[in-house]
Amino acid sequence: MHLDGIDILISEVGPRDGLQSVSSIMPTEAKKVWIKALADAGLREIEVGSFVPAKVLPQLADTAEIVTFARTIPGIQVATLVPNLKGAENAIAAGAQKITFPLSVSETHSQKNLRMTHEQAFIQIKGIVELIKSLPADKRPLFEGSLSTAFGCTLEGEVPLTKLVKVAETLIGLGCDEVGLADTTGYANPAQVKLTITEIWNAVGKDKLTGIHLHNTRGLGLANVLAALETGLTTFDSSLGGLGGCPFAPGASGNIVTEDLVFMLDSMGLRTGIDIAKLLKVREIVQAAIPAETMYGFTPDAGVPLHYVQGGHGWGLSA
Amino acid sequence: MHLDGIDILISEVGPRDGLQSVSSIMPTEAKKVWIKALADAGLREIEVGSFVPAKVLPQLADTAEIVTFARTIPGIQVATLVPNLKGAENAIAAGAQKITFPLSVSETHSQKNLRMTHEQAFIQIKGIVELIKSLPADKRPLFEGSLSTAFGCTLEGEVPLTKLVKVAETLIGLGCDEVGLADTTGYANPAQVKLTITEIWNAVGKDKLTGIHLHNTRGLGLANVLAALETGLTTFDSSLGGLGGCPFAPGASGNIVTEDLVFMLDSMGLRTGIDIAKLLKVREIVQAAIPAETMYGFTPDAGVPLHYVQGGHGWGLSA
């Protein structure tokens, strides 16, 4: 499986998913420096915040300002999370180029997370689709319906694949541009990832599912990336230093670590466009801004192999 | 990739590779309790020690006694490492059923680790083969030549695949029953793992390479397991709590963690024969015996998914 020349999009979720999960509040100026440094390291999509009430997530109260700033950086797609129509209005007003609505496939989780039943969430999604349609074509953001708890739920246990597929069909039917898979609970395994992607593709088409958000809660994060990659997905969420993603316990990171993900893909001969040395330096910015938080990652500790040359040629793949 | 019914052999290396890498010396009685508990949890192959001089590795000075004890436990294959003919003589005298000679493919590493050139190591290997042949057929241990630094060397960098294949051919030619691949340095990536297995199979035959020893130094351990599994290997080394394997830095475990490996394989619907709940309890024995050492693992922190049922049915794989 020498995949020379395949381009992979890494969507960095640290500024949103990372910061919403830690108790430290990062100053707005530090966020800007961080996001700029990520772009300089070669990241091409960054989820910079979430349009939720400041009293719910004070860490992300400055999201509108951050979006406006991020839009001044050339070459990146600026993504945000929105939990409802109101959030989407604010995201669009700020200039977000991609908006993601996180719908928990498990209805119990949906009630806890968004305080909405599926029917209530579908009404919000429909409203967002109509809002987007009302915009001039060049002002419309990409609208993704994220299938949270896609691989299992901490409240319900196993999530039936038939149910997941049905929700995916509903989201596409309502007018989402695409759906995304999210292993919110860190329950996924590689066989399940492959089967799930295939079934959703069969239901809604390959162009409607291109990305996946995986956690490393049980250590399977990168194995699940490999499974998704082999099935044909090319967009992967991850977080610098593994920040966020609801870490269950100390030492158990939630989100997969961007640094380790980039090393894996690059060493396999895939092209991420990301400079590992620059990426590792970005950690220092984040750690200095939120010194109380733990940053994870194996590659940052161990470094790249001796005489490693970056750039998608692949390590150990030539005779 | 629903692999129902595939049997996987996990070779637990903690009592050898784990203990040789930590500074604590585990009392002999605690080792026995540990090994017995591993067998009770369903492990079927355990590398219990190494026949090296006690002054080199005082942690493993009791290996002969441990082998003799382990042989009284039904249902397990008792494996040991041997660095030379003398070690093999002692291993066989003690009753080892499998002996592994660790040959570094990188000659610089071989000089540092075994203080032998390849030519000198080949002489030892030849002597071991002759010793084994001199035994009655039912007394002969399985003899594996382990290809250390197979995926790269911390002293030489990339290890050419052609060289690796040549050394594998030499070991089989000298009379080793099989070769094993070892990512001693944690440099391997999934594409490299697949290519390497395929090339070695092409050279020496599928039956001569069945197992792999992977590290998690850069976080790719389980992704590399998946790659090897998909290529067709069915034996995987791992260490309880990720003990050992030359951790490069704090937080960066060396060996892949048995608990996480078993969870991954079991959740994929593969059969390991290992009871996860019992396996997790074994950690307590080890931690109590060497309290100064850090035990790693994500699954131990997070636990298995809600309503998880063990036994190879696979999580999320039924409609």
Q: What would you note in describing this structure?
A:
2 copies of one chain form a homodimer. The first copy, chain A, has 319 residues and is an alpha/beta fold. Chain A has a single domain, classed as Aldolase class I (TIM Barrel). Chain A has 12 helices and 8 strands. Chain A has an 8-stranded parallel beta barrel, surrounded by 9 helices. In chain A, strand 3 (77-81), helix 4 and strand 4 form a beta-alpha-beta unit. In chain A, helix 2 (28-41) runs parallel beside helix 3 (63-70), helix 3 runs parallel beside helix 4 and helix 8 runs parallel beside helix 9 (221-231). Chain A is globular and about 55 Å long. Chain A starts with 8 loop residues before the first strand and ends in a 17-residue tail after the last helix. In chain A, 55% of the residues are buried. The model of chain A is unreliable at 247-252 (pLDDT under 50). The interface between A and B is large, with 67 and 67 residues.
Secondary structure: elements and pairs:
The structure is a homodimer of 319-residue chains.
Chain A: E1 9-12, H1 14-21, H2 28-41, E2 45-50, H3 63-70, E3 77-81, H4 85-94, E4 98-104, H5 107-113, H6 118-133, E5 142-148, H7 161-174, E6 178-182, H8 190-204, E7 209-213, H9 221-231, E8 235-238, H10 258-267, H11 276-289, H12 299-302
Parallel strand pairs in A: 1-2, 1-8, 2-3, 3-4, 4-5, 5-6, 6-7, 7-8
